[in-house]
Specification:
235 residues, 2 domains, 6 helices
């Protein structure tokens, strides 16, 4: 029948929404690669020394591992904020739970990618020196995370610690943008009254008077506003 939406269109629309959500989340996750390069560039390496048992810290309480975690946390939060703003601006038709889910999933994926990319820069050189350098040789260990990682529950990986900060920043920023939105649907809507005709001559005081005429008769019908019980109502 005309005007009736087929039932088979609903599952197709849901599949398209799920596919688009996963695709955008995957794209956001891939942005974790440059984030990892930036983290490896700003996070300091830790000085170590080769011994017979392996590598040990060159100083008793090094600050470099803490700085690496701090840099990852700051960059991750900033990344999540920027991702939420970009999703809000670019995906106007998907504003709402879909955009929030994309930001959260993409933030977690980007954090894992950034961690793995950043920690592997210089890791090969570190392992080579660890295997071939004589005892007492001083070198550096690439930045890694101590306040975050992945726990495995069977076959299910569960990230924790500062790996969740990009998703946290994206979720909080997206929620704030939704709370401050001026439209209930979160999408731009036409302003109320934008389609109303301009006011008639009787509204701005520049038109003909709406009271009785000079001859005492009834005033002509017009678009003015009625101002008294004896006036004819406005159209």
């Amino acid at each position: 029948m005309p005007g009736v939406t087929p039932v088979t269109d609903r599952p197709t629309g849901r599949l398209r929404t799920v596919g688009a959500t996963l695709a955008v989340a995957l794209l956001v996750s891939l942005l974790g690669a440059p984030l990892g390069l930036l983290w490896a560039a700003v996070a300091p390496d830790t000085p170590v020394q080769k011994t017979a048992e392996g590598a040990i810290y060159a100083t008793p309480q090094p600050e470099q591992p803490i700085a690496a975690d701090g840099w990852f946390s700051l960059l991750g939060l900033a990344f999540g904020v920027l991702v939420a703003i970009a999703l809000w601006v670019l995906l106007r038709r998907r504003r709402g739970p879909v955009g929030l889910l994309v930001g959260a999933l993409g933030g977690i994926g980007a954090a894992v990618v950034a961690w793995q990319v950043g920690r592997r820069i210089g890791l090969g050189t570190y392992h080579r020196l660890l295997a071939t350098a004589p005892d007492g040789t001083a070198f550096t260990k690439p930045a890694d995370l101590r306040a975050g990682g992945i726990d495995w529950y069977g076959l299910l990986p569960v990230p924790h610690g500062n790996l969740l900060l990009p998703a946290f920043g994206a979720a909080v920023t997206y929620t704030l943008l939704a709370g401050w939105s001026r439209w209930p649907s979160l999408r731009p809507e036409p302003e109320l009254g934008a389609g109303w005709p301009p006011p008639g001559p009787g509204l701005d005081g520049g038109g003909p008077p709406t009271g009785p005429g000079l001859d005492g008769g009834e005033p002509p019908a017009g678009p003015g506003i009625s101002s008294g019980p004896e006036d004819r109502p406005a159209r």
